[in-house]
Design a protein that fits this description.
The structure is a homodimer.
Chain A (H helix, E strand, L loop, with lengths): L9 H8 L3 H8 L9 H14 L5 H8 L4 E6 L6 H15 L3 E6 L10 H4 L6 E5 L3 H7 L6 E4 L10 E3 L3 H15 L3 E7 L4 H14 L6 E7 L3 H13 L7 E4 L2 H13 L9 E6 L3 H4 L5 E4 L2 H16 L12 E3 L10
Parallel strand pairs in A: 1-2, 1-3, 3-4, 4-5, 6-7, 6-8, 8-9, 9-10
Antiparallel strand pairs in A: 10-11
Helix pairs in contact in A: 1-2, 1-3, 5-13, 8-9, 10-11
The first copy, chain A, binds a DNA duplex through helix 2 and helix 4.
DNA sequence: CATGGGAGGTTGTACGTATAACGCCGTCCG
DNA sequence: CGGACGGCGTTATACGTACAACCTCCCATG
């Protein structure tokens, strides 16, 4: 590369190899069988290597009318959960020659910035978590192929949806705690308006109500340890029957509940059982280790990407929720043990 | 939009507004002052709105020869640290009309996949963490403007570097523990070949050596709680003088050290002091809360992006490491307290 | 010997945009 | 009254690629 010169184009390669630009495109595009001789092809490849040629993706995208780039819209990346979703989605995408661009919705329901303008890349499709509330209004009305993660199948504008079987997770938590003998519950819920969290709450309430004599209170907090601490401490200190178990919408909230329990001198699990959802690394770092619902984030991302690829190819995405699994650890025990 | 039709182009807008395509480009590009009348401009804007026109970014990128897209190459997103870096970088980028695409290097030093092929987007520049070892070889030799995060200023191919003052962090840890009276140390180091971790180790050793009679052993583990648990347990159970303090390269490693201490019946901080680096949410979730070095991940990302923007504009990036701050919490105390 | 056809290319064009260069028309000044 | 100039546009072109269509040998075949 001479200084000041720009990147080499396919025409530069052609000149160096003594062929036409079209021949370069054919060879490097792998479509030269029966069109270009092996010796010429090798000469082209060598010239490309020497010049350090990289195809101009903007030009290729323009020509082909597609970019093989998918936008993944997620809420903030404050836990590794959506990192896992990204990893799974990116893996499947790579297998099909697609790239994935991440758009973490600015904190919460911020000023609805435009993900399409912000992620400058030209896009072939979008996968969006229903929790990325701020960005969703901007996405609606765009005619890009869309797959929603964890979204109300009825209210997703006809877009395909991929869901974790989160209602079943709530069922497993409820049955586990009921079997241990708990009757008085606190639901420490995420203060995010999202279909997912509504379903969790409804499923939890429904399954707890199957046993007579149970009580269920709720309190809400933003998904952060400090906010959860504040909310849990207030709820535990409130007058009336103290719950013997706290069901949290998220492991981070559970960590806040741990801190509240410590402040109030309550031992876990003897005085108070706590459950989470996600199974983050955090879950086994705290003492006692957290009983939680394991969500397979990578599988979630994989299924989301598979669904989008199906949409892009005109196929119908596979049906079926992704199963989740209760992992029983040390934070749950019979009440008053 | 009639069904089956493709996205509207600027020419469609022009037709609808009864003007030329060039006029549309001028109006929508904001360069119409003195070239197009206000009434015509308004007509164009209305037509664009009615048709739901979005400029084709591939075409724009091709025409302008730049994409306003930056690639951020990071190691795996298993903690929120690099999520913070991304957030900071993306904020500064957005202020300058740039987008950021994330490339998490496949686990560790995986098969050196090509970040440029994987992230399909056409790029204007690259910011790369020196910890993303696998991807770095692919980046080298590419003539894209490059900024390295936490990299040896000497060995970064002349690329600009932005560093956290990690050596000073190690100094603060060393002086804190020495002041408490500790003399026998274990360094639980990250098993990642990276300049950053070498510097931490060197700085730690140098500052501890300033006090006569100190001892320092090292053990290495991949950055995960379970691996750290294994390594720390082995090191603590080894014959010889047991360390009274463990200095960890990372909060995740520190969490592993907590678990090792619990298994061995050692109380923190009475029997064993532990320190980390990063100040993740995890640090205040575990009990006792972790004394650690707070790294400002978002500022790190901001400075990285500012440096890259400077490079792109031909300016010289600002000098100076980013200061870090020891946060003293409950995991450190005088030995044998 | 004419004809077909395959191997090995080349020429030409379009993707959608931004912008340089060029009108055209009315007005105003010398 | 000529021409310069400003306001309001238009026409033409280039960015780099992928591929359809074409072209030219040369050999085999009837």
């Amino acid at each position: 590369m001479a200084p000041g010169s720009t990147r080499p184009t396919s025409r530069d390669v052609a000149r160096a190899a003594g062929v036409s630009q079209a021949a370069v495109s054919l060879v490097l595009g792998g479509k030269w069988r029966g069109r270009v001789s092996e010796t010429t092809a090798e000469r082209v490849r060598e010239a490309a290597r020497d010049l350090g040629y990289r195809p101009n993706l903007a030009a290729r995208n323009l020509r082909l009318g597609r970019t093989r780039t998918i936008l993944l819209v997620v809420p903030a990346l404050t836990t590794e959960f959506f990192a896992g979703v990204y990893t799974g989605a990116a893996r499947i995408a790579a297998e099909h020659g697609f790239g994935v661009v991440l758009y973490p919705s600015p904190e919460g329901v911020g000023p609805a910035r435009d993900p399409f303008h912000s992620a400058q890349a030209a896009l072939d499709g979008v996968i969006a978590s229903s929790m990325a509330a701020g960005a969703l209004t901007a996405i609606r009305g765009d005619q890009l192929p869309l797959v929603m993660l964890d979204s109300d199948p009825e209210g997703s504008l006809g877009a395909a949806t991929v869901n974790l079987d989160i209602a079943d997770g709530a069922r497993q938590v409820a049955e586990h705690l009921l079997a241990l003998g708990h009757r008085h519950f606190l639901h420490l819920a995420a203060a995010i308006p999202s279909w997912t969290f509504e379903i969790r709450a409804r499923s939890l309430a429904a399954h707890l109500a199957q046993v007579p004599g149970t009580s269920l209170n709720s309190t809400h907090a933003p998904i952060s340890i400090e906010d959860a601490l504040t909310a849990a401490e207030a709820a535990l200190a409130a007058p009336g029957a103290r719950p013997t178990a706290i069901v949290c919408d998220d492991d981070l909230l559970a960590a806040g509940a741990y801190k509240a329990a410590r402040r109030l001198g309550l031992r876990i699990p003897d005085d108070l059982s706590i459950t989470g959802i996600d199974d983050l690394a955090l879950a086994t770092a705290i003492d006692p280790e957290l009983t939680t619902v394991r969500l397979d984030a990578e599988l979630f991302g994989e299924r989301g990407m598979q669904a989008l690829l199906a949409v892009l190819e005109g196929r119908t995405p596979a049906e079926g929720d992704i199963p989740v699994e209760l992992v029983v650890r040390g934070s749950t025990a019979p009440p008053g043990a």
